[in-house]
Queue: 3 jobs
Job 1
Amino acid sequence: MLYELKPVSFRLKKEYDPTQALGFGLIAEEVEKVNGDLVYRNDKGRVESVRYEMINAMLLNEFLKEHRRGEEQDCKIQQQETTITELQCEIRNLAAVVNAQGSQLQKVSAWIETSEAKAQFAQNH
């Protein structure tokens, strides 16, 4: 709901603000379309102004939700980083095992080739 509100900038008439400083706020009629509880009404039931204190409380609530979500994401990121580190270690260990097995296979292959060569030599002579 808060995301539907559209802030505007404005300058008051000189009779109300001689400096005509730039102000920021919401248009009460637009706020009413989003949520009628966020506006003040006059005796005739017409929209008069925005209940900024309610909007501020809602904004604080949204901020707190986002903050909690950010903390949860930080925790998940930390867990993922730990998992990645563990997996990298495991990959290094597995690579070492594969290299050792490759070396053993080379030795066995060399032994077999030597054995076959000796057997062939013995048959031929």
Note: The chain has one domain: 2-90.
Job 2
Amino acid sequence: MKEAIISKAYAQALIQLSEETNTNVATDLTKLTEAINASNSLENLLFIDVFTLEEKSTVLNEIMKKLGLSAISSNFINFLLQEKRIQLFPLIFKEVIVIDDHKRGFLRGTVEGAEDAPNAAFVEKIKTYLQQKVGKDIQLSYTKNQEIAAGYRVTVEDLQLDATLENQLNQFKDTVLNA
């Protein structure tokens, strides 16, 4: 919980700095995250305490230069590295993306179901319902979930609509046991 609060504070400060300098840190951090996810070696370098701070810093600065990251983003990542808080980077990245999405007027969400591909009509119906409910554009992605036998679970930030068979059975069980 403490890490989530700290990450949110860092993300808000970074977004504020980026607005003052007209820099898109969300794009910068996305590029860096994609580079980290594409290379196990880079991930190991950054998040495992086998390498010295100088080794990490040298490699990371070279990668950030090649990615064309802004000075604000590069300085922030170096700050995390120097303060031994680089482990917070994934949480900070997530918060930056959420804040950036809010500023652009949309929310991201996930639809989970048992099928390989969702029922397009259902997803569109849910999207329309959520847009009316929250008053923002909604972008939904689909994920197959092996734990769902039938139905869908939709999550948009802290809002969750659970129309899965498992949820309905649990509600029925609670009703019977508490009657």
Note: The mean pLDDT is 83.
Job 3
Amino acid sequence: MLRKNFFNAEQLIAIATDYHNAGLDPAEVAMMSFAEKVVLDQHSIAQQDVDELRSHGFSDEEILDIVLAASARAFYTKVLDSLGAEPDAVYLELEPELRAALAKGRPFNQS
């Protein structure tokens, strides 16, 4: 969906490999950083992390959406990986370089 509607392959590769330096605006980087922490280090989330998002204009509802989306994505990935699910045809239609970047084990692709 991101590839089809929002970003070209080069932009998504940059985001997947180093979102801090991918040309995203500061609010998007803060959102990605927080989502990464939700997935990989949730026990260390503190009030300052939430305040950081608020300083970029995120509402409490939007912060909840970030937590729920990141958590759901991590759960979904674990389920698919555990069942040995294969990618669907749409994924296989992505550029080979983009598929390789997505498969490199970034936090949102980890099981």
Note: The CA atoms of residues 20 and 44 lie 20 Å apart.
